Prior knowledge:
Number of strands: 15
Radius of gyration: 17 Å
Strand content: 35-45%
Number of helices: 0
Helix content: under 10%
Largest sheet: 4 strands, antiparallel
CATH architecture: 7 Propeller
CATH topology: Methylamine Dehydrogenase, Chain H
Order of helices and strands: EEEEEEEEEEEEEEE
Distance between the termini: 36 Å
Structural class: mainly beta
Strand order of the largest sheet: 1-2-3-4
Amino acid sequence: MECVKGxxxxxxxxxTKGHTAALNNGCWNPKIKEEFxxxxxxxxxxxxxxxxxxxxxxxIKTKSTGGRKKVPTACxxxxxxxxxxxxxxxGSIQIWDHNKYAFVNVAMQKKKPAHMNGSDITCLKLxxxxxxxxxxxxxDTLKLWGIRNFKQPVASNTSLPNAFSMTDCVFSPDDTxxxxxxxxxxNEKEGEIVFSRS
Length: 198
């Protein structure tokens, strides 16, 4: 399947049928099998329906608290399909309620971003019970957040080198462990997998 490309000469991204810049991430909706989600350098997250290849289903414009466009580098759904999450280049994690058509942002760090400003958030994963959110950043951190309280992370692992934009993290099936890979440090020959208690 190929999605339609948007018109790059239109200023309002909401008026375009598809993305106008390179894609950064995508995933399938775990509950609605015909729906998937993509995020791109055009500062949008788009929801698509496989039965309609001529236009996106919905669009979410990612912005900073000051209203400026921010590029989403990672996106995902919660396991129950209710939440849409995106991590942006300003270090913010943004969450929208999928049950609301308007996609009003319900959580975003306002004082201090989740990750260092200017670093990519390479992965966002919700726990199987949808109570926790893990975020992996190119600022060499892995953070665990409570989905209901986004003021500060529940746990944070630092000094985990991350040189690649698709470095992933994953919860164990019982949500007790959080796993990620780390990039090679200078003069090292093997990477590592790090296990943390969640």
